[in-house]
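Database export, one record per block. Field names are fixed; values are copied verbatim from the stored entry.
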Amino acid sequence: MVRTPHKTSPLPAADEMAFGIVVAEQYGELSALLLEGAVRTLKEAGCLEHNIQIKTVPSLMSLTMATQFFAEYTDVDAVILVGCLPKGEADNALLGPIAQNILQIQLQWNMPCAWAVMESKEYGGIYEMSERGAAAAQEAVRMVRLQIDMEAASPNTNPDRRNLN
């Protein structure tokens, strides 16, 4: 049996969505490429520049706290996390706790989060880094669209996460 490649649906319009992007400053040149791909994709989906908030943090360990700040102090619909791991540290000792904390924030605040985190030795060129950032932005847009659609179908008259607090 021949399988056809999985085709993704077109990216939903993001013209009424707002995104936070947290960029870890470690390996700044590589993180900048990931960031470029994420921002480009959001704009291509129609997200207005003033609806994209970019904040930098010193390290990957700071991504969690900055994501919490976005959830608590802003009206963004999703957060994209961008950064690079030092060579040889792409194991669960560092990423596991970060992922667990981000998952907890997502569930607590009903706010999608997407990753564009790579190990610096994985660097395969400008295109690959930019595409990893783009993939995270696509995930964020799709998850926000899913949330909007499900909120609209909810019998709850006020299901918006921003009104839960």
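Remark 1: DSSP finds four helices and four strands in the chain.
Remark 2: Residues 1-6 have pLDDT under 50 and may be disordered.
End of record.
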